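Dear Dr. H.,

I hope your travels went smoothly. While you were away I took the liberty of generating a structure for the chain from your last submission, since the lab meeting agenda had it listed for discussion. I wanted you to have the full record in hand beforehand rather than looking at slides cold. The sequence, exactly as received, is reproduced here:
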Amino acid sequence: MSTGILSRIRVLDLSRVLSGPWATQILGDFGADVIKVERPGTGDDLREQGARLKDLAGNETNERSTFLATNRAKRSITIDMAKPAGQELIRRLAAQSDVLVENFKSGDLKRYGLDQESLRAINPRLVYCSITGFGQSGPYSQMPGYDLIFQAMGGVMALTGVPEGQPGAGPQRAGYPVSDLTSGFYATIGILAALHHRDTVSGTGQYIDLSLLDAQVAATSSMAMSYLVAGQMPVRVGLGSQLTAPYGDFDCADGKIMIAVGNDKQFVQLCHVLGCPELAQDERFATTSLRVVHKLVLLPIVAAILKQNNIAHWMPLLREAVVPSAPIYDFKQVYDDPQIQHRGLVKTLPHPLSGTLSMVGNPLNFSDTPLEYTRGPPLLGQHTSEVLREVLGIDDQEIARLAEQKVTAS
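The corresponding predicted structure, in token form, is as follows:
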């Protein structure tokens, strides 16, 4: 039994791919009992994506990295929801759950009697969260979509990439599925808020309609406000910034570093590190807004000085002067960094095939209810019999009958 901050919460997870599983993994990290419902035989689409996990003998298994990254702290059961008996099992599980998360196309679950109105009639305390590409209403509500679509429509690509007029100019996507994960974060926030309202105000759950497009548009609001407030269109600036300078990548003698000066004090400190304190006294560079105006003059001066020494020379000096700065890491360097290691972000979890599995942990650190990492990502249907027996009180004979009828798979 979990002792986590959500240890008394049960989550019925009908979602697959990224946004929903990301949200339910966070809830599982917090101690919720997350029951992941998967299709018999195939399971979540993510079971086919990413690098293969090796077993204890060093042989490749069918478990893949993308699924592993988003499904720890869950129990997997297989149910064929196209069968009436499968639908009934899901209804019974929903009656015993606090939260249901799904990311089917709008209207799909209504055909099976598993829509929010049907299930909340059975369990009025249920918080039912639907995650779709475009939401439950609107002209695009029936359209499918993936992260690439929402980065394009949500403004991310308008902000990302090489500036116009430079070689390689044009829109680019972020290097990870930012729309999916942003939606997962919003889903988690919404679910926790709805649970709080249920338990402190209303006594009943409610329905959450979350769209990946909505979430992505909301996440870019700090950049979009210049358009909404003054009609100014944000533009692509590559690794630079439209709001401050110097901010971006700079060549050293042996590679690149990033410097992100966010205020006047940091600029003064940078100038001392570079050995040119007089730059901070130049009236063209006296404030953040003036440095932005004159950055085409300022940046080449900074770049020429940094190029004279290597990364190992500059990074200790910049850190000592508290100037925001960093080398550009590959993933080996990320996990070798002493700060990352000190924070303990890599966790070791049990896995039935590989024995143990290294995973990136949750970044939240609670003082009174520390997160527990005891349940690794499940095999397909690993917990079917356990959940049916424990949660629904189904006996072994009935469990065998359901498996024989292919309603479930062991």
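Two observations you may find useful: The radius of gyration is 25 Å. The chain has a mean pLDDT of 96.

With kind regards,
E. W.
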